[in-house]
Amino acid sequence: MFTYTVRRVFSLIPVLFGMTLIVFAIIHAIPGNPAQVILGQRATKEAIATLTEQLGLNRPWYIQYGDYINALLHGDLGISLRTRGPINAEVWPYLAATLELTIVAMLIAIIIGVNAGIISAWFSRSWFDYGAMVFALVGVSMPIFWLGLMLQWAFAIDLGWLPTTGREDARDPVSAITNIYLLDTIMQGRFDQFVVVLKHIILPASALATIPMAIIARMTRATMLEVMKSDYIRTARAKGVSMFWVVYKHSLKNAVIPVLTIIGLQTGLLLGGAILTETIFGWPGIGRYLYDAIAYRDYPVIQSGILIIAAIFVLINLIVDLLYVFVDPRIKYTK
């Protein structure tokens, strides 16, 4: 197990290196000069040329890439062309906001999706089964921007229960420690702020959870139906074990591997930044951070942001692979 984990970790290095090279090549092929974007359309050619030289954009691409990799190996993500600030300090608050939103969204998706799939399989071909699967199909097909706007209209504007945008009350801002506000408010004992932050996250997290919830529900139902046809399940029922324990203890344990895979993939996708959700709800996440960087041709930010997302994605896949062993003892990693 240890050998397998070490081997997998080292195998991530060429993946991430290849990602930096591909991203570097693509973004430098995008038309436009960052100096022109920063200075505006009315800037003179002399000013653009001067800023281009100051930013080092007039050097050959391989020298720029070499400098970036050299800084990266020393733990430096570089300097933003737009803000001239270190990316190391800038990126974490945005990443923490997306991390917080993703965790809450995936908790909603897992709790509702898994249980909906289990009940659908338990009462197969019932009205609940058909209704849940129709809901799942609608959830996968529904445009996220439309759902976000409808949630804002219903629960924020019409009913007035929840705020429309942002992460906190501007009149009583959270004192950031980890930049994960739900955690920060608990650490400071500010449970009044915790409730406010929770109200702000409910709508964007619910909108973001819709697609993974639907996918998890459908996958859970499919795997549970297959497992519940097994001989050991019929034997457990014949011994008088209640249906609840048969489903949640015996069936779910053996059906969870494909569901766990889907959860890992969906978590990685959400951590990549949900630009539409973050834009609609004014959520300052990594998606909006990268979107603004692309608009300003901020090459170092784009490269570093995508590298961080790729690293998180492959790390989540590694964690899911390792969880297989704990979920199903029959799985052994020997090499």
Walk me through this protein's architecture:
- The structure is a single chain.
- With 335 residues, the protein is mainly α.
- It has a single domain, classed as MetI-like fold (Orthogonal Bundle), CATH 1.10.3720.
- It is built from 14 helices and no strands.
- It has helices at residues 2-28, 34-39, 45-55, 61-73, 87-122, 127-141, 144-158, 181-187, 191-227, 231-238, 243-271, 275-280, 286-295, 299-327.
- The longest helix is centred in the middle third of the chain and has 37 residues, at 191-227.
- It is globular and about 85 Å long.
Characteristic key phrases:
single chain; MetI-like fold; mainly alpha; 335 residues
Topology:
Blueprint: H1 2-28, H2 34-39, H3 45-55, H4 61-73, H5 87-122, H6 127-141, H7 144-158, H8 181-187, H9 191-227, H10 231-238, H11 243-271, H12 275-280, H13 286-295, H14 299-327
Query: What is the total number of structural domains?
Result: 1
Give a quick account of the main beta sheet: strands, pairing sense, barrel closure.
none
Class, according to the CATH hierarchy? Mainly Alpha
β-strand percent reads: under 5%
CATH homologous superfamily? MetI-like
| Percentage of residues assigned to helices | over 70%
Summed up, the helix count is 14
- Structural class, by secondary structure, is mainly alpha
Low-confidence parts: none
- The rounded Rg comes to 24 Å
Mean pLDDT: 81
Total strand segments: 0
Task: Give the overall silhouette.
Answer: globular
Secondary-structure arrangement, i.e. CATH architecture: Orthogonal Bundle
